[in-house]
Amino acid sequence: MTDLVLVTIPFSHYCEKARWALDRAGLAYEERAHLPIAHYLPARLAGGGKTVPILQTPGRVITDSTDILHWIDDRLPEAQRLFPADPGLRSEVSRWEERFDAKLGPATRRWAYGHLLPDGENTQRIMQKNVPRIEALAVRAAFPLARALLRRGLNIHPESCARSLARMHEIFDEVSAAVSDGREFLVGPRLSAADVAFASLASPALLPDRNTRWLCARAALPVAMRAEVDRLRATPAGAYALRLYSHHR
Ligand SMILES: N[C@@H](CCC(=O)N[C@@H](CS)C(=O)NCC(=O)O)C(=O)O
Fold first, then answer.
1. Is residue 52 in contact with ligand 1, taking CB distance under 6 Å?
2. Rounded to the nearest whole angstrom, what is the distance from the C-alpha of residue 183 to the centroid of ligand 1?
3. DSSP string, 94-127
4. Which residues contact 75 (CB under 8 A, 6 or more apart)?
């Protein structure tokens, strides 16, 4: 029994970021997962807006993944928090995290959908996992419509996907430069919100083994996507994110 409810789209990487922080803090929660578009009503009923994750707590409803991480931090001893107390480290963590939230998350999402949506069979399989049966049936019955809505909603076409891939490379290069000295964490001596945000928001482009429950196995990816995933996994930034998944997720 728990009084925390997390409303999600199960394969959303922002939701993965919130789940990671909740799991790491040992906080029990009930996840209510929905498909994109089908999530609108549950999100509203939960007291949120258009986007997930939404965390319902006894005191308030939190409608942004970063705010969820801060709320969790308030419940943890200083040594376990994702935002360090030291002002210099804290502002560096926040700077990276904001960049990942604003630029990396939208880019990996658009790029991954751009590859996955044409592969109707695999995408339907991903979408039917972990959601209410009625939504799984609906997506099976009306996949072409769902696909068209997603393409329009996320502005997915070859040029925008190419721009997103360029943005991903830019951010991976920045992170690779920062971790090329072999450090375990992006900022400071222990896991921070910058690490959790990077690994989660990069996960559609890295397919960490620990995240396949929410996405799919690498072997099931379209060939061109798999090739890029393998390239990104081999970068210092990719290797660092995969290490975070192996050791800290
Ligand atoms: N800044 C928000 C972004 C969350 C976000 O973009 N969520 C996406 C899923 S990946 C969403 O709910 N999209 C639905 C929509 O915009 O209609 C956060 O960090 O929580």
1. yes
2. 30
3. HHHHHHIIIIIHHHHHHHHHHHHTTSHHHHHHHH
4. 25, 27
Superfamily designation of domain 5-80: Glutaredoxin (3.40.30.10)
CB 214 less than 6 A from any atom of ligand 1: no
**Domain ranges within the chain, ordered by starting residue:** 5-80, 87-248
As its CATH architecture, domain 87-248 has: Up-down Bundle (1.20)
Does ligand 1 have an atom closer than 6 angstroms to the CB of 33?
Answer: no
The pLDDT tens digits of the residues spanning 2-43 come to: 899 999 999 999 999 999 999 999 999 999 999 999 999 999
CB of 9 within 6 A of ligand 1: the answer is yes
Given a cut of 70, the residues of the chain with pLDDT beneath it are 212
Percent of the chain whose predicted confidence (pLDDT) is above 70: 99
Nearest atom within ligand 1 for CA of residue 66: 19
Quote the tokens at residue 20: 């990671």
